[in-house]
Amino acid sequence: MNDRHDDLFVWDNVKQRGEKSKNSKKEEIELLHKDLLKQEEEIKKLTEENEDKQDKIAELNNDLLRYHADFDNFRKRTRTQNAEEYNRGITSVLKDTLNILDDFDRAMQAGRDLTDNSFYNGVELIYNCFMSLLDKYGVKIMDTVDKQFDPNLHEAISRVPTDEKPEYTIVGEMQKGYLFGDALLRPAKVAVAVAPDDE
């Protein structure tokens, strides 16, 4: 009987251990499941944070590109404004200088008739140096005589009735006109041919 009792005892122990083993496996599975759910929640939370950070990075990149474009536009605008200011300033100085050039022209015309060629030659030398300097800065004298009158470039001072030239042809120049590059610095004052009145 002792053997049987020992067998029952062993059997009970195995059975209890089996139930404990089932319970512990069940508990272990539940713990693993809970742990897995926590990890999934953590992954979900990290994924959302990552998406938020990616959105923030994209927003910052867009801001950076916009600021870069704004700065580039500012730099171009500033360069253009500086060039315009420079041209406005130099144009003003050049316009004032043209009056002196007109005086040189008159002095040279008056000096051609003088007997003292050295004075005339000195004035002519200064005039040529002055013209070279203006040419260096892009100032050009307009060629007007025998050209078609253009109100954008010429100022008509007088009308000359004639059949010898086509109508609105420039037949005389009272004051030279100048260009600064392609821009008008000063219009030429001219006489323009018109058809004679038939009376």
What descriptive keywords fit this protein?
single chain; 199 residues; alpha+beta; Nucleotide Exchange Factor Grpe, Chain A, domain 2; 3-stranded mixed sheet
How is this structure best described in words?
There is one protein chain. By secondary structure, this protein is α+β, with helices and mostly antiparallel strands. It has two domains: 2-137, no CATH class; 138-194, Roll (Nucleotide Exchange Factor Grpe, Chain A, domain 2), CATH 2.30.22. Helix content is 65%, strand content 16%. The protein is built from two helices and six strands; from the N terminus they run ααββββββ. It has helices at residues 2-111, 117-136, and strands spanning 139-141, 154-161, 170-175, 178-180, 183-186, 188-194. Strands 1-4-5 form a three-stranded antiparallel beta sheet. A hairpin with a 2-residue loop joins strand 4 and strand 5 (183-186). Helix 1 (2-111) runs antiparallel to helix 2. The longest helix has 110 residues, at 2-111. It is rod-shaped and about 135 Å long. The mean pLDDT is 86.
In angstroms, what is the radius of gyration? 50 Å
Biggest beta-sheet profile = 3 strands, antiparallel
Number of helices: 2
Helix content: 55-70%
What is the straight-line distance between the termini? 166 Å
* Principal-axis shape: rod-shaped
The helix/strand series, from N terminus to C terminus, equals: HHEEEEEE
Write a short abstract of this structure:
This protein has two helices and six strands; from the N terminus they run H-H-E-E-E-E-E-E. It has two domains: about 1-135, no CATH class; about 140-195, Head domain of nucleotide exchange factor GrpE (Nucleotide Exchange Factor Grpe, Chain A, domain 2), CATH 2.30.22.
